[in-house]
Amino acid sequence: MIDVLKKYKLNKDTWLEQLAIKIFNDIFELTKDKKGVSRETYGEGETQAINYFIRLARDFGFHVEVDPAANVFFSLKPIKNSRYILTGSHMDSVPMGGNFDGLAGVAAGFLILIYIKKNNINLSVPLKVLALRGEESAWYGRNYIGSKCIFGLIGNDDLNSSHRTNGKKLLTAMKECGVDLDKIRASKCLIDKDNIDVFIELHIEQGPILVDRGWPAAIVTGIRGNNRHHNIICRGSAGHSGTIPRYLRKDAVFAAAELITRMDDHWNTIQQHGGDLVLTSGIFQTDSSHHAMSRIPGEVYFSFESRSQDSATLDALEALLKSECKTIERERGVKFEFDNVIKSYPAELDDGIIKKLLDASTSLNLPSASLPSGAGHDAAIFANSGVKTGMIFVRNDKGSHNPDETMETQDFITALSILKKFIIDYEKTKSV
Ligand SMILES: [Zn+2]
Predict the structure, then answer these.
(1) How far apart are CA 286 and CA 185, in angstroms?
(2) What is the 164 CA–ligand 1 centroid distance (Å)?
(3) Alpha carbons 234 and 217: distance in angstroms, whole number
(4) How far is the CA of 203 from the centre of ligand 1 (A)?
(5) How far is the CA of 138 from the centre of ligand 1 (A)?
(6) How far is the CA of 37 from the centre of ligand 1 (A)?
(7) Which tens digit of pLDDT belongs to each residue from 201-252?
(8) Residues in Cβ contact with 423 at an 8 Å cutoff, skipping those fewer than 6 apart
(9) Are 117 and 1 in contact (CB under 8 A)?
């Protein structure tokens, strides 16, 4: 162990910070793109980042396990037929994204393993660290692929989804990364689920709240689910912009814009009544091969995403979306065509785990800070599969899913310290 610290030229007092910076810098160099990093889901950057940890694990003498979905587990020794604490996050990023989204959680778990080994700490419940693949939907339009595989939740629709630009099928990319597709298609749990005592994901916040409140880290109370339509088409009739009077128009853009405005009004009402909801139409386009300033648009394509901590709110919103479309169809003579909605269910995190994480924070003289997660995370898949789950957020600036995403090393070490304390004190504070 001492030799390894020497090999990396680490100072005995500040090695944790130094090694954290080294890991983030090394993986940035391995996966950098024109801007930020690109660690493609079941692609080259993701594999490079995972292989980096596998090499580091060999240096530290850790046990490495690759599951049939090519997710990788690290532990001090093999853990068989006994319960364990699991921590980790995802290794992929969005195209030209930030370096810390996902990577922070894997790096934190890995550094805690090193800390435990270096200090000869005898954990009453051993620790496994998980490097997941395929969390980001940006590449194949499907999210949480690695964690869904673990719980047997990936179907043929997912496997046959196509790459955002080159049309490659997800199953081809997975096969190239060594995935055993027969085992994935069998839809069986790939993990000894009952032996996972708890899953904790440390992740950057990806929102502005921690920066706004001056908190370096916080405990997450729940994760929003979402309903996503990638491509809704509104069809009207194209025509000359100067000759067709208002009452004879079937303008697809005006109709879709009215739909979005009506949904915005519903959002406002639901929020005023205390409901949790955010709505986004991130893609909204006419066909550039024939659209023109003087042509009434005959069709428009748009996405529609709703997120909430409450399943009933998401269901109600979906019903409202469809009924508003019917009204607008009647009033404007257009037709809305829907794709299948892709659902991610909201996740409730475990109250006992939240309390223990908050206790760990306050015992480190940190604020007792908690907030819900607006973004989706792998932790939701674990929680909704019946694993006791918790999450820790690290403050990050300049948003996320962009190359400017920023995380201070000191904030990362603060969040890591909460997780480390939780793991080391785990059995002492275990609730019944
Ligand atoms: Zn993430």
Answers:
(1) 38
(2) 19
(3) 43
(4) 7
(5) 11
(6) 13
(7) 999 999 899 999 999 999 999 999 999 999 999 999 999 999 999 999 999 9
(8) 85, 87, 112, 116, 123, 127
(9) yes
Q: What separation in Å is there between the alpha carbon of 23 and the centre of ligand 1?
A: 17
357 close to 350: Cβ distance less than 8 angstroms? no
pLDDT tens track for 294-331: 999 999 999 999 999 999 999 999 999 999 999 999 99
The pair of structure tokens assigned to 272 is: 């005023």
User: CA-to-CA distance for 425 and 418, rounded, in angstroms?
Assistant: 11
Which of 121, 127, 129, 113 has its CA nearest to residue 60?
A: 113
User: For the segment 13-59, what is each residue's pLDDT rounded down to a tens digit?
Assistant: 899 999 999 999 999 999 999 999 999 999 999 999 999 999 999 99
| Interacting residues of 242 by C-beta distance below 8 A, sequence separation 6+ | 294
Residues flanking ion ligand 1, Cβ below 5 Å:
101-102
Helices (H), 292-350: 311-332
Q: What is residue 432's predicted lDDT score, i.e. its pLDDT?
A: 43
Neighbouring C-alpha atoms within 13 Å toward the C-beta of 96: 3
Give me ligand 1 centre to Cα 144, in Å. 10
Q: Which letter does DSSP use for residue 70 in this model?
A: S
Distance 196 CA to ligand 1 centre (A): 21
CA gap 39, 226 in Å, rounded: 24
The three-state secondary structure class of 211 is: helix
Torsion of CA 248, 249, 250, 256, to 10 degrees: -140
> Distance between CA atoms of 78 and 65, rounded to whole angstroms?
9
Under a CB-based contact definition with an 8 Å cutoff, are residues 16 and 413 in contact? yes
At 7, is the secondary structure helix, strand, or coil? helix
Report pTM.
Answer: 0.86
pLDDT in tens, 322-367: 999 999 999 999 999 999 999 989 998 999 999 999 999 999 999 8
Cβ(75)–Cβ(126) below 8 Å: yes
- In order of start, what are the domains of the chain with their CATH numbers? 2-224+346-424 (3.40.630.10), 226-344 (3.30.70.360)
CA distances to 3, 251, 262, 286, 335 from 254, rounded to whole Å, are 68, 6, 12, 12, 12
3-state DSSP call for residue 278?
Answer: strand
Gyration radius (Cα) of the chain, Å: 24
Q: What confidence tier does 400 reach under pLDDT thresholds 50, 70, 90?
A: confident
